[in-house]
Amino acid sequence: MEKERSLQGKVALITGGSRGIGRAITLKLAAEGVDVIINYFRKKSTAESTAQEARAGGVAAHTIKANLGEPEKIESMFDEIETRFGKLDILVSNAATGVARTALELDDRGWDWTMDVNAKAFLLCAQRAAKLMLNGGKMVTISSLGSRLAWPIYTAVGVSKAALEALTRYLSIELAPRGICVNGVAAGAIESEALKMYTEGQDLSQISLQTTPAGRMVRSEDVANVVAFLCSDEAVMIRGQIIVIDGGLSLTTVGYGAKKDDEGGRLGAP
Amino acid sequence: MSAEMSIEEKVKSIVLKIVRKPDIDFAATTTFKDLNADSLDIVQMLVALEDAYDIEIDDQELQEVTNMGGFIDYIKRKVAEKG
After folding, report:
1. How many domains does chain B divide into?
2. ipTM of the predicted structure?
3. Which of A113, A223, B44, B80 falls between 20 and 30 A from B53, CA-CA?
4. Does B56 contact A at CB distance below 8 Å?
């Protein structure tokens, strides 16, 4: 029997939807019957490849290039969505960037660039998206545990994600009367190109294997599954929450680099 | 002005605008380090050039580029490949 596609006929915009976590979300939503609009920053070929994969599941997939750090590009993107689709049911705010520097090394350009793409872009997208969600809708933001933990050289991104999470809560209240649910997910370390930038050669997959209660690193598909759930009607009473997806890592006191008891380490003393 | 010159001039204009050093010496041997270009500068240069010529710049391929002469040659090659 063919699996029921719970989100059949919906239209979703996934910012940064062509690769990494965004790609997994795009393909998961497509598998649930959603027509997907893939926003990308630079690589058209990558976006088209993801769109092709999505289309193989029988849904429509459309790509739009837009640098979300530029408000006028966000406007153009939504003009195109409005003209082409006339509505939007789901907004996944996933696109992210950042400069890898300590707080004392950060300059205003790096700060603004990171905040513009990671936080302000969601505000601008949500403002336009809400107008296209005539029969209600779902918005999901993709945050990071760096919003509440302090990691070396993650300052700008961590702060931008904290702003994104706060905005998620505010919008969840403001948009509730319009039938729009706004939530977010915060993932632990996911093996990706982006992670390599912040971990400077550490073998995080090995470290995560030792320190994550679930016994492995988080995968992009783990995030996509939760996003799809938050986009479903089953999640309608979840509002303004940031769901942590980290295999239990953030609940433990064993940090990166810590040793287990039988390896000479002590809990709480990484 | 030849098409080749125009690519050189475009690259120079974009690079100097982004690094905010309009008066700096810009030669084939000038490196990104000489321009004090950080990772954000370089991303913004690549995006501006991709938009200007509707090309895709491969970040891996760019690792081989050491100076502005090589950078201009790389952009010319990408533009030529596009046809």
Report:
1. 1
2. 0.82
3. A113
4. yes
